[in-house]
Design goal:
The protein is of the alpha/beta class. The chain is 28% helix and 26% strand. The chain has helices spanning 22-25, 28-37, 48-54, 71-78, 90-102, 140-150, 166-169, 183-189, and strands spanning 61-65, 82-87, 108-111, 125-131, 151-162, 194-206, 212-223.
């Protein structure tokens, strides 16, 4: 298996509900309800892969697309980065602002649908983060193209997502194959960048039954050519 064995993440088991379809699961209303009733769904600590990647990075301009309740954006701000977070859920953004205040850091949070009503500022960020922004095939390349547009020459797009085989072989994550990614899809979406990493990685997840299983994720790191 790629990646190392990691501590179990009990928050993952709480992270997803199962409406009738991914259409219902991904609406503003669904996310607002989830965030309103389930507390900090994935906790307040950053994604473990992001923490491994970003620890020790020199301060830079960072964009967190689909920032949710702000756990990654706020952690990045505590590391000295200038961070902007965007998410479609007003409830999630308000919780993210409170989390930033609790940590005494400044993060620019905005409510916007990344696909439908957000225009990326060209080359404005040194690092663009996409953490489990799971979108269907007609929306995924749009969001990824906007991430590519937003990153500056020489900058990096960093993406973690649930892998397409997680439904059959893993645990947690959305139960809809339409919103899961694989290496081929990401290679196509980020073909204008220099892809440094595009591979399956694994997380240990503790289920409600107390058993620990491996979740199957995909991690992409890609840089925009400089000049």
């Amino acid at each position: 298996m790629a990646g190392t064995s990691r501590p179990a993440d009990p928050a993952e088991a709480r992270g997803h509900v199962r409406p009738a379809s991914y259409h219902e699961s991904g609406t503003v209303e669904a996310w607002d309800e989830r965030y309103s009733t389930r507390g900090m769904v994935w906790g307040t600590e950053p994604n473990q892969f992001l923490a491994d990647y970003a620890a020790g990075l020199t301060p830079r301009r960072v964009l967190d697309l689909g920032c949710g309740q702000g756990r990654n954006a706020v952690w990045l701000a505590t590391q000295g980065h200038r961070v902007t977070g965007i998410d479609q859920s007003p409830v999630g953004i308000e919780q993210a602002r409170r989390l930033a205040a609790d940590h005494k850091v400044e993060v620019l949070f905005h409510v916007a649908n990344v696909v439908e009503d957000w225009t990326p500022p060209s080359g404005a960020f040194d690092l663009v983060i996409l953490s489990y922004l799971q979108l269907p095939p007609h929306d995924r390349p749009v969001a990824h193209a906007k991430a590519t547009e937003a990153v500056a020459p020489g900058g990096t797009v960093w993406l973690i997502a649930h892998h397409s085989d997680n439904i059959a072989d893993g645990v947690g994550g959305p139960p809809y194959p339409e919103v899961l990614f694989d290496e081929s899809a990401l290679a196509d979406d980020f073909s204008d960048l220099d892809v440094l990493q595009n591979e399956k990685v694994y997380r240990n997840v503790e289920g409600k039954d107390g058993l620990v299983r491996a979740a199957h994720d995909i991690l992409l790191v890609a840089t925009k050519p400089d000049g």
